[in-house]
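> forwarded from #structure-qc
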């Protein structure tokens, strides 16, 4: 916007300069002629001088009319412009010789010298105009007596000095304008590059969001696969095994016992299936924050498994971003689920710690434990729990560590950045 404003201002001033160069000589010639008529008696113009001045005024007017047509095809300094400038100066000098008030017309040479003359002729044009103006200022040409000639020389020196000063100032203004124009052009290029970078950043942001969404979908698929493998598939396998025993036993009491076991396994598998569907979208966070959702999750798990479970919050609780809350809640759910299925624990504890710019979630149990280094790599028939939890933490720039030893329980720790709720 600043560049546009400057260009608009330059356009306006340029239009005014063009209008002056077009109509200024006419106006100044008219003013000079009017001043000469009024002052003819005061300056002692003779009749012949008045006639001569009239002829010169008409000649100057004709010159201007001819130049207006020729200037349309010669907008810059040229040989024709130099000829026009020289003839106009001669008319101005002759008119000022007849009547010094024609200096109103002669002063035009100061304003358009750089527009008409090539650089090497500009100083000569200015000096010639200064001679005419100095003669007018001392009362007309030629000066009478050595005192008037001395005054003419002094006035000419002053005029030339002023021209030098003003020329230097004009050159500085031109340089300043050039630097300003260059700076504005550079700013416009920088703004264009910045806008392009912002557009590219927006496109990259959209791409990252899409990739994050796709990674979330893939993570949910892995979690569901783990849930199905570790709960529903195992439950169905147990049901099949119980039904096979029923089919091969002739004892009705024994068959009834195995049918009851199969029914229990079916109910348990149904419950696990419902839990997996609920975990797809963490409904526990719909009305509660993460601390309250974890408290309810731990309490419900303890009631369901008969294990003594405790939940603790340390630090100043803050409202976390939805993705951070969902990730920590799911890690806690999967850790407790693993403890309930494999650890045979009697006690479990969950601690949520707010530590400045990080959130730490610890899940501990006193179960049978295991050797983390001896856990086999995930295969088509292997478990998914630890890999799934680690992938969840890493997806939000966190980390998950597991400490366990056979016979000494297990501790799962998830450390993630504290990203506050963006609402």
């Amino acid at each position: 916007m600043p560049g546009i404003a400057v260009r608009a201002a330059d356009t306006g001033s340029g239009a005014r300069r063009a209008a002056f160069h077009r109509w200024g000589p006419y106006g100044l010639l008219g003013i000079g002629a009017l001043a000469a008529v009024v002052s003819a008696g005061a300056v002692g113009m003779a009749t012949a001088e008045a006639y001569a001045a009239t002829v010169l005024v008409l000649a100057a007017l004709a010159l201007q009319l001819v130049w207006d047509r020729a200037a349309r095809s010669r907008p810059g300094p040229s040989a024709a412009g130099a000829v026009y400038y020289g003839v106009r100066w001669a008319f101005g000098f002759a008119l000022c010789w007849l009547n010094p008030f024609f200096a109103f017309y002669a002063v035009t040479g100061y304003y358009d010298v750089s527009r008409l003359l090539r650089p090497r002729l500009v100083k000569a044009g200015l000096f010639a105009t200064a001679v005419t103006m100095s003669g007018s200022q001392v009362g007309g040409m030629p000066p009478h007596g050595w005192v008037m000639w001395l005054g003419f020389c002094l006035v000419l020196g002053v005029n030339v000095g002023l021209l030098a000063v003003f020329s230097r100032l004009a050159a500085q203004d031109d340089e300043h304008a050039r630097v300003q124009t260059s700076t504005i052009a550079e700013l416009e290029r920088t703004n264009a590059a910045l806008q392009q970078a912002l557009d590219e950043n927006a496109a990259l942001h959209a791409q990252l969001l899409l990739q994050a969404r796709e990674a979330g979908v893939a993570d949910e698929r892995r979690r569901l696969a783990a849930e199905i493998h570790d709960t529903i598939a195992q439950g169905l396998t147990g049901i099949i095994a119980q039904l096979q025993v029923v089919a091969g036993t002739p004892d009705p009491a024994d068959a009834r016992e195995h049918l009851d076991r199969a029914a229990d396994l079916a109910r348990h598998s149904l419950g696990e299936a419902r839990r997996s569907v609920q975990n797809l979208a963490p409904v526990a966070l719909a009305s509660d924050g993460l601390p309250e959702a974890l408290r309810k999750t731990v309490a419900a798990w303890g009631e369901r498994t008969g294990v003594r479970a405790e939940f603790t919050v340390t630090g100043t609780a803050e409202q976390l971003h939805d993705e951070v809350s969902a990730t920590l809640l799911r890690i806690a759910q999967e850790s407790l689920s693993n403890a309930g299925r494999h650890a045979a624990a009697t006690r479990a504890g969950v601690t949520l710690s707010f530590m400045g710019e990080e959130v730490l979630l610890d899940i501990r149990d006193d179960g049978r434990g295991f050797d983390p280094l001896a856990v086999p790599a995930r295969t088509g028939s292997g478990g998914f729990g630890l890999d799934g939890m680690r992938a969840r933490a890493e997806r939000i720039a966190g980390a998950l560590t597991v400490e366990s030893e056979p016979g000494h329980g297990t501790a799962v720790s998830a450390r993630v950045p504290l990203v506050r709720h963006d609402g």
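QC bot note: The chain has a mean pLDDT of 80. The two ends are 34 Å apart (CA to CA).
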